[in-house]
Amino acid sequence: MPTRFFRHPDGALPNTLALAYALAGYAGGLWLMATASWPWALAATLWFAHALIISAYLFHEFAHGTVFLKPEVNTRGGVLMTWLTGSCYARYEHLRRKHMRTTSTVPTSSVSTPRRCCNRPRPGCDVACWRWNGPMYRRWNC
């Protein structure tokens, strides 16, 4: 029985197509921009830009570990996508950690003081106040 490579079996085809499109759009778009006449180069610029957008979406999916079953393979894919999108100025793990910090509701500081917020004392309640009541709620009511 073959082992699974993708995290979800129904995601194998869409993820394979997205990866192929991102890689082909990067390589093919760059080649056409450099060698083709200006109408084709203009079309290649749009193709290249769209492939970079897809690469950025794929980076997001790799950061959350939703493409492949093994975390190591997601990390390799994430590194490739960061290089394609021009984020090679920072390491993949740093970008992943930064992204996970912004999407998490858990406070990231080592010192977390419980506050009374939204009638619930708990750490990280600023995020909860903003989500439940809008950004001005804590400033006026907590």
Across the major sheet, the strand order is 1-2
Strand content: under 5%
Low-confidence stretches: 107-118, 132-142
Helix % is: 55-70%
Number of helices: 6
Query: Termini distance?
Result: 57 Å
SSE string: HHHHEEHH
* Alpha carbon gyration radius: 21 Å
- Overall structural class, as computed from helix and strand content, comes to mainly alpha
Shape: globular
Mean pLDDT: 78
The domain tally reads 2
- Total beta-strand segments: 2
Main pleated sheet: 2 strands, antiparallel
Description:
Mean pLDDT is 78; it is low at 107-118 and 132-142. The protein is globular and about 45 Å long. The chain has a two-stranded antiparallel sheet. The protein contains 6 helices and 2 strands. It has 2 domains: 9-103, no CATH class; 106-142, no CATH class. The protein is mainly alpha-helical. Strand 1 (115-117) and strand 2 form a beta hairpin.
Distinctive features:
142 residues, 6 helices, 4% strand, globular, disordered C terminus
Task: Give the topology.
Elements: H1 12-35, H2 38-64, H3 71-84, H4 92-103, E1 115-117, E2 120-122, H5 125-133, H6 137-141
Antiparallel strand pairs: 1-2
Outline:
With 142 residues, this protein is mainly alpha-helical. The protein has six helices and two strands, in the order H-H-H-H-E-E-H-H.
